[in-house]
Amino acid sequence: MGILAEVGWGSGLGPTMRDWAKLKILLANRPKMLRELLRELIGGQGDMQVVGEALDPLEILYAVRKTEADVVVTTLPATGEPAITSHLLAEYPDVLVLALAPDGGRAVLYRQVLLKEKLQSTNNSVLLSTLRQASAER
């Protein structure tokens, strides 16, 4: 199974697309050889297209707007998440961020998720308890 299949494409986890729409992917990862491999892999897919490349964080933010990218592929650091992730998801909440380790051995998919939770009651103790629990889960 390839990297794109492992992170959930085809299982309803990616952006909603009409049948005729191609998934627009912006490559923003290092090293160059991995970008080239991804470009070749994606280029062979009828439902996906590489819409550009950007490496500088400001350039990436601009390129997402300009290309209307659905996915940004970036570099996964050894620890933590890519620094650009929170900026991308704040600016473009519908964008998926696929972070790949430089050796291609690890991949993490980031996306902004809106959760809706219906409360059992609107009494004061339930409201306060819900706020405390949600705050503790952040």
**Highest CATH level, the class:** Alpha Beta
Note the main sheet. 5 strands, mixed
CATH topological fold name = Rossmann fold
Q: Please report the distance between the alpha carbons of the first and last residues.
A: 33 Å
Query: DSSP strand (E) fraction?
Result: 15-25%
Q: Which consecutive residue ranges, at least 5 long each, have pLDDT under 50?
A: 1-19
Number of domains: 1
Averaging pLDDT over every residue, what do you get?
84
Q: What's the total count of β strands?
A: 5
Instruction: Give the strand line-up of the largest sheet.
Output: 2-1-3-4-5
How much is the radius of gyration in Å? Answer: 18 Å
CATH architecture: 3-Layer(aba) Sandwich
Helix count from the secondary structure assignment:
5
Order of helices and strands: HEHEHEHEEH
Which structural class matches the secondary elements? Answer: alpha/beta
Principal-axis shape: elongated
Look at the structure and name the CATH superfamily: Response regulator
Brief sketch in words of this structure:
The chain has 138 residues and is of the alpha/beta class. Helix content is 36%, strand content 19%. It has a five-stranded mixed β-sheet with strand order 2-1-3-4-5, sandwiched between helices.
Question: Any overview of this molecule?
Answer:
The chain is of the alpha/beta class and 138 residues long. The chain has one domain (3-112): 3-Layer(aba) Sandwich (Rossmann fold). The protein is built from five helices and five strands. The protein has helices spanning 3-6, 32-43, 57-67, 84-91, 124-137; strands at residues 23-28, 48-53, 71-75, 96-100, 107-110. Strands 2-1-3-4-5 form a five-stranded mixed sheet, with helices on both faces. Residues 1-19 have low confidence and may be disordered.
